[in-house]
Amino acid sequence: MQTTFPKLLIKHAAERPEAAAMREKEYGIWQSISWQEMAIMVGHIACGLHQAGLKRGEHMVVVGSNRPRLYATMLAAQSLGAIPVPLYQDAAAAECVFPMTNAEVRLCVVEDQEQVDKMLEVRESYPALEHIYFDNPRGLRKYDEPGLGSLDELLAAGEAFSKQHPHFYKEQVEAGTQEDVAAMFFTSGTTGNPKGVVHTHGTLIDRAQAGAEFDHLTSNEDVLAYLPPAWIGQNIFSYAQWLVAGYVVNCPESMATVTIDLKEIGPTYYFAPPRVFEGMLTSVSIRMEDASSIKRSIYKYFMRLAKEVGPKRMDGDAIGLFNSLMYALGNFFVFAPLRNNLGFSRVRVAYTAGEAIGPDLFTFFRSIGVNLKQLYGSTETAVFVCLQPDNQARADTVGVPCRGVEIKVADNGEILVKSPGLLKGYYKNPEATAEVLTADGWYHTSDAGFIDSHGHLKIIDRVKDVGRIKGGSNDGAMFAPKYVENKLKFFPHIKEVVAYGDQREKVCVMINIDFDAVGNWAERRNLPYAGYTDLAQKPEVYALIKECVEQVNADLAVDVLLAGSQVSRFLVLHKELDADDGELTRTNKVRRGFIAEKYLPLVDALYGGLTTQFIETVVKFEDGRSGSVSATLNISDAQTFVPVKAAA
Within the chain, which residues score under 70 in pLDDT? Predict the structure, then answer.
């Protein structure tokens, strides 16, 4: 059968018309949309888009949060054989110009006034944008712009057209095949212009099915859709697998209410990048600092027990009668209330991906009974390459290849993948396509790693980022910056880290403190501060961060491969790294090279032995204005340890 996403929608609507397909929280109340209602809505929007001139094979941009009518719009475009292109809702107008120009977009559907204003600004640089439709009309009543209209108007026009041409929609859907392009996702663009990754219905549906089979997903699952739809991870979990498995996707009221909405929904299937889990652990740590001494003692006792036996219990290993009884007691007093408070009381399967997760962070969630696992994939592979079986989740691997996937390791350590989920190519970029896809169908991941003795894939770092220490006592030692960064980010007081050391004699890092966690820590110690910049440079804060750095160094000292990656010097940055300032991608990945150029005086100071360095940085505020932040930063040395092997 030539399956497409619109055909899957029609199938669910026919088989279980009254079952909930999506829920949306509006004004504090969850509203359900059935599969039948979704199918009718999609049909009307498709007819409206047809009247607006959307043609088969044409691209249409969608910008906004997870909203049922935006999901319906993507399905409607696919029904006509057109190609939805989701863009990040927090991207600046200038960032949208290249993707829209590259894809030759004439029509876009956006969420609200903020996105309308952005598209109107885009149109100044890209006048080919003819039509802008919006979902939420709030604040847009007095707008009078050519080609601007509401989704309600599009729906009404489509409904009228549908009555006059009752067979049009189904004929369009039936004309679709699994070889048709289903969507295009733009990469982060860490080293240049983003690339449009082209995926067909066949590649996306195959990988969604492979993931669903691996974890036995059914229509009974509940998912919370809160990450950007432009990120393929969110798109696979709350769009592709939603249509494959037929479960319920829940859309939170706003980003500000996600934590509350997570507790109310209690998802059974959950997905988040490590940053989200880091934030959760930080909030737990802050609350425990504010708890009474008795509660803190109980928490610390049972968490020690959980760390020792919890992961074994999750893997199905025997932990003994006494430990079983004590864990059950800990579950009653600590673990179950904690899972409930985090919104994980019903989670059956939880995944993290996007970048490596710190081993201690991973262990924490499995210790308290959350079935957190890792998966490996990318935009180009439609996400699912490797997944961890329920009883084989380990912090240092990303699982085993799932159905249809072959993996081999090149001579330089790069992971190569062959899979039914590989991209069709990069849009209008055959050179870049040829660089990553071999003639015989292997995809170059750019990740360095190896298959361990248990058949699990272990990722070390990006091939281009894995380096060597040059000179000094660690001459020739391997340096894996992401590994070092993730170990430091486990600490609740550290939010972001940028590590340097390749072709240098030692490793130095720049650190962002977590303002909430460190602010709470400072207030409990009656330490006054006037904002982020002031707090970051407090001697007491440097002492706190130094403890974290030296603890990581002690851990690294017992790692045969990475003992040479211990941190010799560090500084705490005067501002938070920000995607709007170009320091992070829209998926919150560090742009290490860009930061090295932007903060070259700080890098030079770290390696030049200076103890202070003045820096002034241009920043962009939320309202679009630019300003500057300046400070004299302290630079601190950290104790390093003799590698255990050498000591022996």
Answer: 1, 189-191, 622-624, 645-648
Strands (E), 484-540: 494-500, 507-513
pLDDT at residue number 586:
80
- Taking only the tens place, the pLDDT of each residue in 442-477 is 999 999 888 888 899 988 888 888 888 998 888 888
- Helix, strand, or coil here: 376? strand
Rounded Cα–Cα distance for residues 201 and 3 (Å): 7
Q: Is 586 helix (H, G, I), strand (E, B) or coil?
A: coil
- The structure tokens listed for 26 are 């509006």
Question: The tokens of 474 are what?
Answer: 């660690």
Distance CA(580)–CA(582), nearest Å, equals 5
| Residue 309 in tokens | 């036996």
Second CATH level (architecture) for the domain 5-188+200-268: 3-Layer(aba) Sandwich (3.40)
> What is the pLDDT at residue 590?
87
Residues of the chain with CATH 3.30.300.30: 467-647
Give which of 354, 27, 405, 368 is closest to 213, Cα–Cα. 405
With a threshold of 0.85, does the pTM exceed it?
Answer: no
Task: State which amino acid sits at residue 23.
Answer: R
Q: How far, CA to CA in Å, does 210 sit from each of 10, 251, 384, 529?
A: 21, 24, 8, 52
Question: What top-level class would CATH report for the domain 274-462?
Answer: alpha beta
Q: What is the pLDDT of residue 648?
A: 39
The DSSP call for residue 422 is -
Q: Which CATH superfamily is domain 467-647 in?
A: ANL, C-terminal domain (3.30.300.30)
Residue of 83, 84, 90 whose CA lies nearest to 112: 90
CA pair distance 316, 325, nearest whole angstrom:
16
Neighbours of 28 (CB within 10 A): 9
Phi, psi for 560 (deg, rounded to 5): -55, -40
Residue 182's closest CA among 218, 206, 212, 158? Answer: 206
Helix (H) / strand (E) containing 285: helix 274-290
What's the pLDDT score for residue 610?
Answer: 95
| Percent of the chain predicted with pLDDT > 70 | 98
The DSSP call for residue 440 is T
Q: Which two tokens stand for residue 623?
A: 């309202």
CB 323 within 8 A of CB 317: no
What pLDDT sits at residue 647?
41
Domain with CATH 3.40.50.12780 in the chain: 5-188+200-268, 274-462
At position 148, the amino acid (one-letter code) is L
Helices then strands, each counted (H, E), the chain: 24, 28
* Contact predicate 40/51, CB 8 Å: no
